[in-house]
Amino acid sequence: MTILMALPAPEPGFEDRVRDSFVRQRLMETIGARLVRVVADEVEIELPFRDDLTQQHGFLHAGVVTSVLDSAAGFAAYTRMPADAGVLSVEFKVNLLAPARGERLRVVGRTVRSGRSVSVVAADAFAVQNGEETHVAMLVGTMMTVRGRAGIAG
């Protein structure tokens, strides 16, 4: 069941703020993840499959999958945050549903509920192989809006 809420439009420039923040996130750069789509309350990140990101059985490591889920969910929440804010994860739970193997990982993060100080988020990860997608993991979590704290900015 999906509950739709009428939310005010995000602040102007939110797409650029999300993209600028993503570029500064060095872990995503290190693993080769790309931000491919940014809209209000939703972002999509893709990660090409690489052998150096796998665990001993040849699947993408759960830590890698979780990191991309966390980033997608956090940036989805960030689309609703004020221009002077930053975003931090408060908590999350991940369910690993199937081995992550294929040509690439596609992760979609979305805002479930946006508040002044915290946002509830979700993200889904899909392994893509020959145009077919397998749902491999999901995250549900909480993100915090951070303002006025040294060292934390969009």
UniProtKB/TrEMBL annotation:
E.C. numbers: 3.1.2.20
Q: Using the record's annotation, list all stretches that form the Thioesterase domain.
A: 57-132
Q: Per its UniProt entry, which superkingdom is the organism in?
A: Bacteria
Q: Which GO terms describe its molecular function?
A: fatty acyl-CoA hydrolase activity
From which residue to which does any coiled coil extend? none
UniProt similarity note? Belongs to the YigI thioesterase family.
EC class, as a word, reads: hydrolase
Keywords from the named record: Hydrolase
Q: Name it.
A: Medium/long-chain acyl-CoA thioesterase YigI
Extent of the signal sequence: none
Alphabetized SUPFAM superfamilies for the sequence: Thioesterase/thiol ester dehydrase-isomerase (SSF54637)
Q: Which PANTHER family match?
A: 1,4-DIHYDROXY-2-NAPHTHOYL-COA THIOESTERASE 1 (PTHR43240), MEDIUM_LONG-CHAIN ACYL-COA THIOESTERASE YIGI (PTHR43240:SF20)
Identify the Gene3D superfamilies for this entry. Hotdog Thioesterase
Pfam families xref list: 4HBT
The protein's annotated catalytic reaction(s) are: a long-chain fatty acyl-CoA + H2O = a long-chain fatty acid + CoA + H(+); a medium-chain fatty acyl-CoA + H2O = a medium-chain fatty acid + CoA + H(+); a fatty acyl-CoA + H2O = a fatty acid + CoA + H(+)
Name the InterPro entries on file: HotDog_dom_sf (IPR029069), PAAI_dom (IPR003736), Thioestr_dom (IPR006683)
